[in-house]
Each structure stands twice: as structure tokens, then as C-alpha cells.
Amino acid sequence: MKKSHYFWSRVWYGKSVWAHVLLPLSAIFWLLSSLRKFFLVNFKQQKLSVPVIVVGNISVGGTGKTPLIIALVKYLQAQGHTPGVVSRGYGGAAAEYPYLLNAASTVAETGDEPLLIYQSTQCLVCVAPDRVAAAQHLIDLGCTHILSDDGLQHYRLGRALEIAVVDGQRLFGNRYLLPAGPLRERITRLQQVDYVLVNDATADIGNTPFKHSFAMNIEPLEWRQIVSGKTIPLRDIHLATPIHAVAGIGNPERFFKTLDALPLTYYAHSFPDHHKFSVADFNDYVSGSVVMTEKDAVKCQLFAKADYYSLVVGARLPNLFWQSFEQKLQVLKG
User: Fold this and answer.
1) Contact, 134 vs 126, CB < 8 A?
2) DSSP state string for 92-154
3) For residue 209, what is the DSSP state?
4) Check whether domain 15-216+317-333 has CATH 1.10.3470, yes or no
């Protein structure tokens, strides 16, 4: 883990005097972000002709949004809809925008999360700094529903539903706004969204003070050999030792905790979120197998070896959530 990443994790989720030193900057951040939100919502927000479902969070770092987006897309597809996903495409640089993903798209063009969503669902995925333009492009192509990945603070894009994902392990850290804490918006923002999904198998939803709160669990489904794309049942995989577990996501410990539930003994290697992996990152792993998240795997496809595997996971949500979600869809349809 890079020193800068460790520093911010310690400030936001541990005990550090820097959190108090940075509080004046948090006050400035709150003022500027509040003015920006007011201006965009009241003067620049654009409503589109199909329902827009925003999935995001109020904190920096991974909370499980991508598995949720994939689950929502598959649900909508199963109901006969044609969903499309828009994303900023962080970490990618396409030749022109809006950029529509295709079978030849690379992570260098799209960023890791959009490419993973496309490969997992085969739905239309469009990336662009301007999410409104990306969404309209998908509507022109026949999409009946738009899902905005990590778009809770992209207020220029009008929305019919808002879903906020909360990390049930780390919650809100020291509860301060950036840069003193990990929050993009105050916690009271969660009282305004349609759903709060707490991503942790042990989360006590009964004590969550927000309406429409549900538990969401990210569970391992199978292994995928990165080179061939072949899937292997969890218990049938045979890994050469030593096993190196690699995670370049917002909360690497979540991945390692998932591995702890499997019959594995491994060495943990943490990288910053959206880390651009190269062969050099793996030079020290002279023997054994490498396991990683799906999000990391899309960045390693060009140089992965035969003993590199990704852990395929899925978002599990209670039936009550899906029933409520379907009811809201029917209201939007009517």
C-alpha cells in the first residue's frame, strides 16, 4: 500500500491529529459543494425521457457499487427491459466521448469498472465526463432504463431513483467531510435517497436511522481463469502455493475478508483504488498462483499468466428489496 493511501486511511478511519487540522478545509469544501449542488439542481439539471437510477455513495472509496449495478442490470434484463449504464470511466481515456463500449474495448479506454460491467452483463455501457450526453446516447440506442454508476453527486443528471451504498465495515469513518474525513456529503443526505444499502453481512439494519434500508452481501460465486475465461467452482480450484492475493480497490480488506471464508492461505498485497497494474507489479511473485478481484482482473488481461484467477462475486439482496424496487419501477412506468 502506498504511503499516501495509508496516510488518508489513518486520518479518515483511525485516530490522527490531521483530521482536526484539516477541518477548516472541510468547511470550505462544504460551502463550495453546497453552492454547486444548489446551482446544478435548480438551473442545470436535465430530466430525460426514461427512468434514471443513480447508484452511488456519500464517501470516498469502494462500497460495493459495481456488483450492485451488475445485479440491477441483470434484474432489469430478466424483466424484459433494456437497461444501459453510464459512467465517468475513471482511469480511462477514450479517443472521443461519449464512448460506447464494445467487444474490442480496453481498460485504457474505459476504466476498470465500466469494462467489468459490460463484460458481466453485455448491456450497453457508455462512458463520458458528461453523463447527460452519455445517457442520451443510450436512450437514442433504445435503452428503456439508465443506471448511473457512482453518480450520486452528478446533479446535472436528473434522476428518478437514488440508491446509496454504505460500507457496513467502515461506515462513515470519523464522519467529517473531505479532506478531514471520507465524506463527499453530510450523512443527512442519506435521508433523501430512495434506498440505503448497507454492504456487510453483519450489519445491524434494524438500527439504521434511514428509510428503506436493506442489507446487501457480496458473496463469492466462482473462480475465473483470467487467460481463458474458464469458470471453476469455488471448492474445485487447485492453486499452486504460495498464493498471492492482490487487491487494488477502495477497501482491499473487504476482498481479503472474503478470501478468509474460503479454504485458502495467502499473502495479501494491497494497491490503491484504480491502480494501473503492469507486469512489474508481479515480478516479485516468482512462483505460486495469483488471485484478485474482477475489477483488477480486467486490467491484467493482457499479461496474466495461466495461474492468475479472479474471484467472481455477486450482490445478494433480500426479497423485500426486490419487491419494493419492482413497485417503484411500476410507478415510474405508469
Assistant:
1) yes
2) ---SSSSEE--TT--HHHH-HHHHHHHHHH--EEEE-S-HHHHHHHHHHTT-SEEEEET-TT-
3) -
4) no
Task: Flag the least confident range among 176-180, 246-250, 327-331.
Answer: 246-250
Q: Which of 164-168, 170-174, 195-199 has the lowest mean pLDDT?
A: 170-174
Between CA 312 and CA 148 the distance in angstroms is 22
CA distance 25 to 38: 20
> In this predicted model, what pLDDT tens digit does every residue of 75-114 receive, in sequence order?
999 999 999 999 998 888 898 999 999 999 999 999 999 9
CA atoms of 248 and 234, how far apart (whole Å): 22
Cα three-residue angle 178-255-127, rounded to 5 degrees: 60
Percent of the chain with pLDDT over 70: 95
CA proximity to 170, closest of 157, 179, 182 = 182
Query: Which strand (E) or helix (H) includes residue 9?
Result: helix 3-13
The single residue listed with the C-alpha cell 485458502 is: 264
CA distance 68 to 62: 12
**Cβ–Cβ contacts within 10 Å for residue 303, how many?**
15
Q: Out of 56-65, 185-194, 241-250, 320-329, pick the least confident.
A: 56-65
Q: Which triple of cell numbers denotes residue 113?
A: 469498472
What is this structure's pTM?
0.92
The grid coordinates of residue 245 equal 492475493
**Helices and strands (H, E) in the chain, number of each type:** 10, 13
> How far, in Å, are 117, 139, 162 from residue 326 at the CA level?
22, 21, 14
Phi, psi for 239 (deg, rounded to 5): -100, 135
Give Cα 97 distance to the centre of its chain: 21
